[in-house]
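Model it.
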Amino acid sequence: MSGPPRIHIVGRKNAGKTTLVCDLIAALTQQGLRVATVKHTHHQHELDVPGKDSWRHREAGAAAVGILSPGMVAMFLPQDREQVGQQRYQLFDAVAFQDCDLLLVEGDLQADAPRVEVWRAVVGEQPWATTDNGIVAVVTDDVPLNLSCPLWRRDDVAGLVSRILQLAGLS
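Modeled.
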């Protein structure tokens, strides 16, 4: 089963990824698209709330734990190791994203899908796009040097949405 087209928004800490993802979600949903998101992290996080019933179920040995309320569904699926490539998104596709038009992933620099980098000079590092040809665009209010990919101003959400729709094959 394949899910919606996937575009990654990558960048260093405090570059503005989350703000941009939220702006993109709002603009894309205004156009009538159903947008799903995944926040990728390479840090180990406890996603459930320690002490809550669902957490206790998992601690007792449940292979998977779901939470069902009138307005929301959540699932906690432990994994022994991080999946690589497309595999890391297949479970989302199978379980939750079939009726979505686009998947925006915040993070996952190693992704095998188009990546848009958010970059700010104040972060103090060169853009990844200077050495990573897999980055298809850079969103910035600064002007980094030596980039072969297109640059988008941070406030040009409409232009970036058009580019994302092209990359996703939805234009």
